[in-house]
Design goal:
The protein is 28% helix and 21% strand. The protein is an alpha+beta fold. The chain has one domain: 2-Layer Sandwich (Ribosomal Protein L30, Chain: A). The protein has a three-stranded antiparallel beta sheet with strand order 2-1-3, with no helix packed on it. α2 packs across α3. The protein is elongated and about 75 Å long.
Amino acid sequence: MTERATKPKLTRKRAEKAPERYLKITLARSLVGYPRNQREVAKGLGLRKPQSHVVRRESPEILGMVRKISHVLKVEATEKP
């Protein structure tokens, strides 16, 4: 027998798909007086006025935007909308 035949065959396991998680993001404070880039991040999230909210799928891009303006946001984890 060859050395190759005695080694167990490696198979790739399919990664189980994690359930999608969503975030309810609320603009808790006005962005008047904050730098322009922070106002643009809020606009990119879809937040226009104070107390407006959006539901977004949790992803690295959204989490980075939330982290950048976390001082004016209220974030809650929610189920599928």
